[in-house]
Amino acid sequence: KQEVTQIPAALSVPEGENLVLNCSFTDSAIYNLQWFRQDPGKGLTSLLLIQSSQREQTSGRLNASLDKSSGRSTLYIAASQPGDSATYLCAVNYGGSQGNLIFGKGTKLSVKP
Amino acid sequence: GAGVSQSPSNKVTEKGKDVELRCDPISGHTALYWYRQSLGQGLEFLIYFQGNSAPDKSGLPSDRFSAERTGGSVSTLTIQRTQQEDSAVYLCASSLGQQSTDTQYFGPGTRLTVL
To answer: Where are the alpha helices (DSSP H) in chain A?
Structure first.
């Protein structure tokens, strides 16, 4: 069964800290992996998408890495801000006849001013 | 341009009633997905439409759930004889449909509460 796991489930850090969110997946034959942000009561906002052939993607203060062989991805957030507080979701696309994403349960991040 | 829109944003219904949830994807996106997010659970795939192909219904939890996509654009998710366990946020997403390069863009969701 293809499963995606995210740890920790929740994280609280003071403003300004660098932090890492972790995502692991059981089947390494992925098409791509996507990190999302979800604010309370809102939909999902795509942050970064990493193709299976890529090792990392960067956008501003965010950097996502992918290690297919070990079934892991990390989302690095530099110089965290209170506005970064949200739930971060990792999702894996295995392609094929389905294009659906398999999601982890997310990491709830709280950045304290 | 406009993003994915969903309506209604909130729906409260009584057990046993039927409900319809609507999704307007981004114009030009050929792929459309429905997901469900239950309290304490991760997002769960429900159904996938790609162009004019038959939909992939492998994620639908029961035969009370159905979905259609008219004219390759707007989609409706119908839940018949709703049960309390159907209470969740139903999210719709669309993408260009090229799979490997796709980013899925999500709507704000419909929060369904079954009393």
So the answer is: none
Work out the average pLDDT over B99-110: 82
d(CA A30, CA A28): 5
Asked if B4 has any chain A CB less than 8 Å from its own CB, the reply is: yes
pLDDT tens digits along B13-52: 999 999 999 999 999 999 999 999 998 778 898 998 888 7
Average pLDDT for chain B: 90
| CA dihedral over A104, A69, A94, B64, signed as positive or negative | negative
Give the one of A32, A41, A43 whose C-beta lies nearest to B106's C-beta.
A43
Which residues in chain B have their CB less than 8 angstroms from residue A102's CB? Answer: 45
- Give the amino acid at A91: A
Is the CB of B73 inside 8 Å of chain A's CB atoms? no
